[in-house]
Amino acid sequence: MPYTSRLKRTYAAVAFASWLMLVGNILLCININVSLDTNSVYSHVNNLLTVIFMFSVFLSQQNESDHIKGTDFMAYLWKLFVQAGLAAYVCVVMHVGYLVVARHWFPDSKYLLNIIYSINFALFIYFLARAFYTWKKLILFQKSKSLHTEWRWFEWLMYGSLLLTLFNISYITYIFVPLLCLLVLYIFFVSVNLRWVAYLTLTKKWRSILLLIVLLVSAVLFGRYFQVLAGNPNLVADHFEHPFVLLMLFFVFIYAFISLLVAVFSLPTSSVFEQKRDDLMNIQKLSQSIQQGQDESQVFDMLFDSTTKATGADAAWIEISDNEEDVSHMLNLDLAKISRIRQILKNLNLDHVDYINNNLELNNYFRELGLPYKSLLVVALKSSKRSFGMLYLLKDIDHGFDRESINTVRTYTNQTILTIENLRLIEDSLQNERYKEELKIASAVQDSLIPKSFPSDSWFEVSTYAQPAKEVGGDFYDFLMLSESRIAIIIGDVSGKGVSAAFHMAQMKGIFHALMQDDLDPVVFMTKANSALSRCLERTSFITSSLYIIDYKMQGLMFARAGHCHTLYYNSMTEETFYFVTEGLGLGIIRDASYAKRIHKLYYDYNPGDVMVIYTDGVTEARSPAQEEYGEDRLKDMLQQTYHLEAEDIKYAIVNDLKTFIGDAHLHDDQTLMVVKFRNVQPKIQM
Q1: How far apart are alpha carbons 258 and 515 in whole angstroms?
Q2: Signal peptide: which range, if any (predicted)?
Q3: By the 8 A CB rule, do 22 and 50 touch?
Q4: How many helices (H) and strands (E) does the chain have?
Q5: What own/partner pairs with CB < 8 Å and gap ≥ 24 does 11-17 have?
Q6: Which residues of the chain have pLDDT under 70?
Q7: Which member of 16, 156, 282, 429 lies 3.0 to 4.6 Å from 306 by CB, making a disulfide possible if both were Cys?
Q8: 6-13 — which CB contacts under 8 Å span 24+ positions?
Q9: Residue 242 in 3-state DSSP?
Q10: Residue 75 and residue 367: Cα distance in Å, rounded?
Q11: What is the per-residue pLDDT across 281-295, written as a single tens digit (0 to 9) for each?
């Protein structure tokens, strides 16, 4: 028998034995007509047995499970109601039965009243213990070290209130009342940890609301029962007045009530989060289309379904350029209306370009057309080399396409274009020698993934360098403007080489652009990216990465690393050059919820003139002909010598030193380097 099971049974046996002795002590007091209100031996025995019983019941539930497994929170709520919440209704039935029996057969029977009261008290304590540790599991879902410490103190303080009962100390004094008030405030502080609610779907939220309501009713029924009997002269011992019991009931009720409120008020936004989740899943499906052996028509099917659902379009169609602009998909439109809309766009010189009009009624041509639609979004399906077609979306309301929906559509179309290009490259490779064509495909994919230039602005300058060890590399970097004053920069290294590495780079690029549309915190991004990659990454593969978010308004940056190289930094104020050493584990290594504990965020206020060097391990692990590593120290020395130069010159100095160091030696790993220098004069921003 496992140790925890033996321990639980031991506590349960102690609880049962102490309860039997407690009942025996009460019956003995009735028999000899002794009141427990006096400071007698029986009163002290009653307090001791009560404390032992309550403590044993809680400890037996504590050892059942310390951690929540998975995200099936409904199972925990349902289990709590079935195994403990129903006890309140049993309590009501027993009380009604007692009233009937007392009225007809045993009026004013102290024995019967106190026995039923003791049974209901045992059921009540069991309910509180089950609820207390069920709430603990929910509160500590995705726990942090600080939250774990807060809960530990809370648990000790709650158990500490048992001492008041043990020593028969009145808590209604000027000493203990303020302490108990502070503990009540602590209960509210602990009860706001409700991360689990965000993981419920709309349907599960409705079910959780119903379960929380019946659990609240259970708590109220128990409380009302003991409140009604509090003034009964035939009751020997009133266990409900103990501070531990009152505090536990208050916590159980408050956490259930706050959870209910959060679940109710989050109902209107549940569909939004589910839509975001569906968007991410659709992007993953597009990324996996190549590996699943799908053809272009299936990719266009996914694009059409995904964009119409994401935007709520009332009408739509797709034109494919390869088929002389044939309409391949249609929704609530016929070819005649499509032809007239295309002719209007052509007359306005808007044919084959991105176009948005959120009020078609202001345009005479569209108004004369008599369509019921008021908003139009046109997105060109094209890469830097060729055009694949056009996507048209219409809605029957004005201003139907906002910034978020447009960004979502463009993310879908970009991923579709990349997927189709990869499909076509694969199709071409099958006609030639497999090995050479695979390298050519992966090289083209990798080239399309890496941006050729970064946005130029007045706050910082960026210079990049990338050198694959072979025709195909596993390094990548990218950026995304989050707002006018915020930019996200990502760098990474995919394990392995060749075509599979290039495909994983495509998946990571799609995930980056999809998730960062919501301007996520770096730690949240890494956690969600790990979850997404866990579904499509081979078990033997992983990705190291670092995500940086530069905020011009706040003049700071925050970042998180997932197993990637440490960031090299020069501080112009202190004139120090150092590495940011932070914890982080590669994406895809751990594929469950515990990964969130492996990632940490760092925030740093940058100064004008600061320099940040981001790189992959191909730089520091490069070897000379004598098999010596370039190393972090040499890279640090180069930055110390060149920090006063422009970003481009710093990069060239490092690269030239690296090439001199390597000499004629073979390049074993891809080399990627990015230099970010914050300009000496930072523009003033209106806050």
Answers
A1: 29
A2: none
A3: yes
A4: 21, 15
A5: 11/56, 11/57, 11/59, 11/60, 11/63, 12/56, 12/60, 14/52, 14/56, 15/52, 15/53, 15/56, 15/57, 15/60
A6: 1-4, 34-39, 63-71, 104, 106-108, 142-143, 168-177, 268-294, 322-325, 404, 426-449, 452, 455-457, 471-473, 497-499, 682-687
A7: 282
A8: 7/63, 8/60, 8/63, 8/64, 11/56, 11/57, 11/59, 11/60, 11/63, 12/56, 12/60
A9: coil
A10: 55
A11: 555 555 544 444 467
Strands (E) located in 107-251: none
For 550-593, what is each residue's pLDDT tens digit?
998 888 999 999 999 999 999 999 999 999 988 889 898 888 88
d(C-alpha 8, C-alpha 130), whole Å: 13
Name the strands in the sheet holding 375-382, side by side, starting at the edge strand that comes first in the sequence.
326-331, 315-320, 387-395, 375-382, 355-357
What is the phi-psi region of residue 609: left when phi exceeds 0, alpha when psi lies from -120 to 50, beta otherwise? left
Selection from 203, 199, 197 nearest residue 255 by Cα = 197
Contact criterion met (CB below 8 Å) for 84 and 126: yes
The overall pTM is greater than 0.90: no
Residue 370 φ/ψ region, left for φ over 0, alpha for ψ in the -120 to 50 degree band, beta for the rest = left
What is the sign of the dihedral through the CA atoms of 109, 110, 111 and 115? positive
Q: Residue 463 has which token pair?
A: 């210079």
pLDDT at 566: 93
CB 221, CB 211: distance < 8 Å: no
Max Cα distance, the chain (Å): 105
Cβ atoms < 10 Å from Cβ of 648:
14
From CA 336, how far away is CA 77, in angstroms rounded? 56
